Automatic annotation (TrEMBL):
Pathway: Purine metabolism; IMP biosynthesis via de novo pathway; 5-amino-1-(5-phospho-D-ribosyl)imidazole-4-carboxamide from 5-amino-1-(5-phospho-D-ribosyl)imidazole-4-carboxylate: step 1/2. The keyword ATP-binding applies. It comes from the Bacteria. The gene is purC. GO terms for molecular function: ATP binding; phosphoribosylaminoimidazolesuccinocarboxamide synthase activity. GO terms for biological process: 'de novo' IMP biosynthetic process. One of its GO terms (cellular component) is cytoplasm. It catalyses: 5-amino-1-(5-phospho-D-ribosyl)imidazole-4-carboxylate + L-aspartate + ATP = (2S)-2-[5-amino-1-(5-phospho-beta-D-ribosyl)imidazole-4-carboxamido]succinate + ADP + phosphate + 2 H(+). It is an enzyme of class 6 (ligase). This is Phosphoribosylaminoimidazole-succinocarboxamide synthase. Pfam families: SAICAR_synt.
Amino acid sequence: MDALYQSNLHSLPLVGRGKVRENYAVGADRLLMVASDRISAFDVVMGEPIPGKGALLTRMALFWFDKLGHVVPNHLTGDAPESVVAPDEVAQVRGRAMLVKRLRPLPIEAVVRGYLAGSGWKEYQDSGTVCGVPLPPGLQLASKLPQPIFTPATKAEMGEHDENISFERAAEIIGAERAAEVRDVALRLYTEAAAYALTKGIVIADTKFEFGLDEHGTLTLMDEVLTPDSSRFWPADSVREGENPPSFDKQYLRDWLEQAQVDGRPWPKRAPAPPLPDAVAAATGERYATAAKLLTGT
Ligand SMILES: Nc1ncnc2c1ncn2[C@@H]1O[C@H](COP(=O)(O)OP(=O)(O)OP(=O)(O)O)[C@@H](O)[C@H]1O
Ligand SMILES: [Mg+2]
C-alpha cells in the first residue's frame, strides 16, 4: 500500500491544511476532506506517514456516522469524492476522503470522558475535579466515572494546544442554549458508541466531537468521529483500576515520544518531531488497524 503524506489536488481550491487532513472547496457549500497518512502527537505532526491510516480513519468515521445518524444530523452529503476530482487525482482521494457539507464550525471541541485518563487523571489528583467537574473521592487511573462527563475545550490555532474550559465558559462562547444542546448530544453519542464498542471488547475511555451549524442553524456533527485519533480506545479485558491500560490509539506513539532523545536530551514536544523508527510507525499502524477491525469488522 502506498502511503500518502500529503494530498495535492490541482482541480479544487485548497481551503486549509490541518495536522491530518487537507480540505478543498467544492463550490460554495461543500468541502472535500482528504485524510492523509500523517499522524500527530502532542500537537506535533510526525515526519513519517503511517501507511493506510487515512483510509482506516475514513472507514471508521463513516461507520460511526451511519450508526449514530439517528442521534444527530451529520455533515455527509452522500456524494462520492471521486466524482468531484480530475481523473488523475482519483488515486489520492479513493477510500480516504469525505465529501461533506461546509458548515460554520462551533469554536469549541465537545470532549466526553467516561473513564479517568490523561489530563483528566492529572487534574483529579490535584483537585478532585476534571475540567472543574467535581468527582467522588477514591477514583484511580482508568476508573470508570459514575457517569460520563462533558468537558469542553477551546479549539487551538495550528501549533497551539487545545485548552480545557468549564461548561460556563463554553456557554459564554457559544451561548447557553447551544452549549446545553452540544453537551446533551455529545453525551448521547458517547453513551451509544461506548455501549456498542464494549460488545466488541473495546472501552472508549474518552473522545472528542466537533460540531458545526448548517444554513438553517441546525446543529450538525462534523469532522471525523470516534477514531483512534480523537479517542482513547482500551482493550476491555485488560483495563485494571490504578494501571495505565494498553491502548489501540496514539498512546503507544506518545509513550515512545516520551522516552525519545534528541541530541542526548528528552524531545521537548515541539516541532520538529524526532524521526520515527520503522518499527514504531509499523506498531502504531497495527494498533490502529486492530481497533478498526474489532469495531467495524473490516
Ligand atoms: N463539515 C465541515 N465544515 C467545515 N469545517 C470542517 C468540517 N468538518 C471538519 N472541519 C474542519 O476541518 C479540519 C480537519 O482537518 P484536521 O483534522 O487535519 O485538523 P486538525 O489538525 O485536527 O485541526 P486544525 O485544522 O485546527 O489544525 C478541522 O479544522 C475541522 O474543524
Ligand atoms: Mg482533526
